[in-house]
Write a structure and sequence with these properties.
With about 100 residues, the chain is mainly alpha-helical. It has helices at about 5-15, 20-30, 40-45, 50-60, 70-75. The protein has a domain at about 5-70. Helix content is about 55%, strand content about 0%. The radius of gyration is 13 Å and the shape is globular. This is MHC class II transactivator-like. It comes from Pteropus vampyrus.
C-alpha cells in the first residue's frame, strides 16, 4: 500500500467515526496548524462529498513534512465540538465568527 493510501485509510476511518461538528473541529485544527489556507478551509467546510473530503484532506497531509502529525494529534486529543453544536455557517469564509443571537 502506498503512503497516500495509508493516510487516506486513516482519514476515512476518522471521518466516518465522528460527528459533523467534530469533522469541522478537525478542519479548524488543520487551519490553526497552518496546514490549510483560510480559503481552502472554507471550501472543505462546504464539501458535500465525504469521500472527496477524505481525499482532499489526505492529499493536503501528504504534501506536508510530517503528514500524520496533525491528524493523529487531533484524533488522540479527543477533540470535541463545543457544547453548542456548531453548524457550517458559524464562520464566514473570511474567518470571522458570526454573532449569535
Amino acid at each position: 500500500m502506498n503512503h497516500f493510501q495509508t493516510i487516506l485509510t486513516r482519514v476515512q476511518m476518522l471521518l466516518s467515526s465522528h460527528q459533523p461538528s467534530q469533522v469541522q473541529a478537525l478542519l479548524d485544527h488543520l487551519l490553526e496548524e497552518e496546514l490549510l489556507s483560510r480559503e481552502y478551509h472554507c471550501a472543505l467546510l462546504h464539501e458535500p462529498d465525504a469521500e472527496a473530503l477524505a481525499r482532499k484532506i489526505s492529499l493536503t497531509l501528504l504534501q506536508k513534512e510530517d503528514p500524520d502529525l496533525a491528524l493523529l494529534e487531533w484524533a488522540w486529543s479527543g477533540l470535541q465540538a463545543p457544547a453548542a453544536e456548531r453548524d457550517p455557517s458559524y464562520k464566514d469564509c473570511g474567518g470571522k465568527a458570526k454573532a449569535r443571537q
